[in-house]
Amino acid sequence: MMQKRRWKTVGLMRKMLSCAICTIAMMALLSVHLHVFPPYSKLPDPYRLPHPQIEIRDKILGKEQEQSWTSEITPPNVYKGPLSSHQCSERNPNCTKLWKPPPNRNYLPCTQPSPNYTSPSESRGYLLAHTNGGLNQMRAGICDMVAIAHIINATLVVPKLDKKSYWQDSSNFSDVFDEDHFINALANDVKVIKKLPKEIGSSMKAVKYFKSWSGMDYYQEEIASMWADYKVIRAAKTDSRLANNNLPPDIQKLRCRACYEALRFAPQIEAMGKLLVDRMRSYGPYISLHLRYEKDMLAFSGCTHDLSPDEANELKMIREANDNWKVKDIDPREQRSKGFCPLTPKEAAIFLSALGYPSNTPIYIAAGEIYGGDSHMGDLQSRYPMLMRKETLASFEELEPFTNHLSQLAALDYIVSVESDVFMPTYSGNMARAVEGHRRFLGHRRTISPDRKALVRLFDKIEQGKLKEGKYLSDHVIESHRKRQGSPRKRKGPISGTKGTDRFRSEEAFYVNPLPDCLCQGQSQNLNTSIITS
User: Fold this and answer.
1) What is the pTM of this model?
2) What is the pLDDT of residues 54-109, one digit of tens each?
């Protein structure tokens, strides 16, 4: 009897022990699934990995941010890790076609002056230049002023940047550009000084609005004759003051030396730009998408497609309030049908998909604040989750020196765009043209120019349900853009039948395409394949 009780006790203890073990095991298993470890961003500083790529990765994987186009979240089923050229070619033979630059037919920079080129002789006076417009409009104007100073034999005073336009940027020349390099690089072309001598009196100065797209005769005769009465000529505006064509080869080459060699960004901007480029390249080949969907662009162009009535009305009021914008009454439908409107973020996404770019393509958004923010970025974000901007590639502390200086922020976008594997502007504005020209100069890098007029018809058919996205659309888009990839060609002249200023306005701008003046077939005299000098 005692033995039976002992066995019952032992059996009961075994059951209790088994239950306890199972309970402990179950709790341990649940703790693994339910315990929430602190995210990377919440770890104490001594335990954080001090590497910016870790932070960028976490943002893309959605570990830190809310779901928004500015937070760069990538769904796990889409994100496949960084692309590389090697992975690209192995995974998809057609992939290299998306990234490989077009054949440049051995066109290389040739900007050295001819044997007949004369260095500056004794200066006849001083040329002051007050630039106007945004960064890239000012860049082109500065380079033209260098050439004009040489033509009229003037000492060029370092140009003043525009501080009164829409952008309201207080930056000085030396804040945006490397002033000393600019002066030294042009020593054999134009004498450049930082400030006008104090002894120059106001009675010796003249303000002049140079005629747009003027040639040698205008500057050598009308402008140079002013030296008889004045010691200082101030150019009130600098945009488009020099003709695109029919200038001596040495003057055209001087414009290229000024633009692509002398006018270097300030060291702090170059360093930050290089950092952004390196961080983009850590993901493999990338596209720089110049998404011109900012408030000022839409207000100026009068484009309202996909906008709400309230948004369209707000843009109209901005346009009417701006005295510098002469055209007030704009038919938005007519603008769009003629190809005069920038692609919307949704249209840009459809276009890139049709060209064959996969959903895990890294895309840098080269733009200011997108009008409407998330409400207009949803389609692009859903198709291409790896959207990045300055603010997602760099920390607040890294960008702080450039904050509130739109020209300096635009310079960062310019660097990342010039260095990108593919550049695609959604509108042919000043930055799009400047970057395209610079990429041509550096070896005709792939630059996709959307045929907006033709694309609008396709987009409308998709909206109306008359056309579906797929092979037909893709084949059509690829074929129609085969010759719009940045391959070498001579600069386009004026449109036939145009006269006067309309004739000059219809020409392709000099800085959009420096061929044939500054690009020659054969061995380059001064090849530099990057805008980054450090």
Assistant:
1) 0.82
2) 444 444 434 433 344 444 333 322 333 334 443 455 455 666 789 999 998 999 99
For residue 314, give both structure tokens.
């707000």
Helices (H), 94-189: 95-99, 135-151, 173-176, 179-185
Distance CA 227, CA 126 (A): 9
Half-sphere exposure of 278 (CA within 13 A, CB side): 12
Instruction: Say how many CA atoms lie within 13 Å of 269 toward its Cβ.
Output: 27
Instruction: Name the E strands within 276-346.
Output: 287-290
What pLDDT is attached to residue 250?
98
- 127, two tokens: 């040329």
Tell me if the bond preceding 516 is cis, omega within 30° of 0: yes
Token digits for 262? 């002398």
- Long-range CB pairs of 502-507, under 8 A, 24+ apart, other chains included: 504/212, 504/213, 504/240, 504/243, 504/244, 505/213, 507/244, 507/245
Mean pLDDT for 457-486 is 96
Q: Comparing C-alpha atoms, which of 142, 118, 123, 121 is closest to residue 131? A: 142
**CA dihedral for 388, 392, 397, 398, sign (positive or negative):** negative
Residue 27 has pLDDT above 70, yes or no: no
In single-letter form, the type of residue at position 353 comes to S
SS3 state at 369? coil
**Which among 301, 326, 324, 327 is positioned nearest to 312, based on CA atoms?**
301
